Structure formats: structure tokens, C-alpha cells
């Protein structure tokens, strides 16, 4: 049996040598996509024709895409990463398509990057480095980090990893989420209301999953609740934040600064006002792009594809009810 595998996750291309070898050795033909994603709609449909599997970025697998004739041979969408808000799981199940993801493998890399953004933002590292490179000698009077208060919104695996790093800086950690988590409290995190977290924190870091309840969680009112000396960091999902409200908050100096690795539209459009907002550090959704992590995530996603191809149930299936469906496109053995 030979499958055609569409690879849109750039991490699997640049740091997925073992994953590529596993797929090829298992008899798969790999089809890489050049150009900036994530993809959706007709663009994605044009790529899916004749493909058995997708090792996917944050591509938009809507109900329309999953039910389209162009996706008729698709049996599995293996997400490179943990976010799956752009995959319609109900539609995937209805069409007999398995969806997997790779939880737990990105935590440390994203937490590292989050703290790197926090430190760079607080101390003005990027601005001062740019000054020296351009022949100047501008020194930035930065904000202290040690001993300050960090607010973690969404205290799951990544939020807890950030909290562990904060302990090394003797920071007070406040947390907000749907429920208190004992494992986060064991790290010293104190669960409080969102209003209290925003009002008391010197740094606010977003790590919540994107749901209908969390979409637009941080807007005009929430930004005005923050201290004028506070900083905001988002390495989770762009839609957690009202980007227009953030731009106004920065221009009106309602908060001291922000760092974003994720956006509503990716890649960030050239004319987006965020590109010219003051005291804003932007990066291209690369918090999980670390070589060792990339190899592990790529291999896990590739293994899910190989397992299903061979009639085995993959790990970390997001829609397990698909295996009870008569429409399952790749039945399991035994």
C-alpha cells in the first residue's frame, strides 16, 4: 500500500528528516507545498486532490473542505502541533476522516520562547540591538523582571511551563482559567479572577486554547484594566486578542508594550496597523520552531499517518467516534 502525503507544516520540512524517512520507508509519496500558509478554502482543495493524508499546519479544514470531492481520498489530518480550532472535528467524523495532534511535545519550546519575548520586551533588547547595528548607541531604560508579578491566562501544560520559569525569577504568579489546577497551584500559581489578574500583573501571558468562549478574551476593557507599566505577551492564538484594541492601547500608552507571535491573519498582511504600532515586538508564529522539538513533533505526526495506513489506531486522536462510523475511510485491522 502506498499513500500520497501532503505536507503543509513547514516544521516537518525543515526539521523533520526522521519523519520524512519514516514515511518514505513505509511506502509513502511526499508532496511538499512551497509558499506561505496556512491554507484554506479553494487553495487547500487544490492541494488535496488525490492525497491520502495531510501532515498539516494550521490549515482551514472546514466542513466544506472535508466534504468536497477534492478531499474524497483523504483519510487522516495529522496536525503538526496542538491547535485544532481550524479543523471541523464533527465534519471530519461525519466524513470518516481521522484527526490527530501532538500534545505535550511543544510545551518547553513555547515556554522558552514566551520568556524570551518577555525578557526582550521588558529590557528593550531588540530596539537597542537595532540601534547598534545601524551605527548608534541607544540604551533602553528597561523594566525589571525579577520579583514582579506574572499573570498566566490559560494554565495548562504550556502555561505551567511558563510558571516554572517564572519561579527562577522569583516572580509572583497569578493564573486564570476555567478552573483551578492543582498542578499549577503546586508551582505557586494563585488562581484569581481575570479582572484581578489584569489589574495586578506586571506581565500578562496568554496560553488559553481558542474556543467560542475565549475568542476576543482580551479587548478594550481588559487592556484598560492593565497597569500602564504592564506588558502583554501572546504565543497562543491571535483570536484571543482584539488586535485593533491593542493597537489603540499601545498608541495611547494604556500599557507599556506587547509581544505577539500569533495573529488573526497569518502571515500578517503588509498593511496591518500592528506593523507600525509603538512598543510592539512581532515574530512570525515561531514559538514552537526549535530543532529538537520540531523533530519530535514531526515524527509523532508522521507516525500517526503510518499507523492508520497500516490499519492501526493512531495515538492522540481528536475525534475517536470516527472509528465507530461506517464511513471510516481506513478501517482498522482486527
Describe the structure.
With 334 residues, the protein is of the alpha/beta class. It folds into two domains: 4-105 and 290-324, 3-Layer(aba) Sandwich (Rossmann fold), CATH 3.40.50.720; 107-282, NAD(P)-binding Rossmann-like Domain (Rossmann fold, 3-Layer(aba) Sandwich), CATH 3.40.50. It is 35% helix and 14% strand. The strands form two sheets. Strands 8-7-6-9-10-11-12 form a seven-stranded parallel β-sheet, sandwiched between helices. α4 links the parallel β3 (53-56) and β4. α2 (17-25) packs parallel to α13 and α6 (107-123) crosses α8 (157-168). The chain is elongated and about 60 Å long. The two termini are 18 Å apart. The mean pLDDT is 96.
Summarize the structure in short.
By secondary structure, this protein is an alpha/beta fold. It contains 13 helices and twelve strands.
The chain-level structural class is alpha/beta
- Could you spell the SSE succession in H and E letters? EHHEHEHEHEHHEHEHEHEHEHEEH
Q: Number of helical segments?
A: 13
- Named at the architecture level, the CATH assignment of the largest domain is 3-Layer(aba) Sandwich
Classify the beta-strand content into a percent band. Answer: 5-15%
CATH topology of the largest domain: Rossmann fold
Could you give me the name of the CATH homologous superfamily of the largest domain?
Answer: NAD(P)-binding Rossmann-like Domain
Which oligomerization state do the chains in this entry correspond to? single chain
Average pLDDT: 96
Please give the share of residues in helix. 25-40%
Alpha-carbon distance between the two ends: 18 Å
Shape verdict: elongated
Low-confidence stretches: none
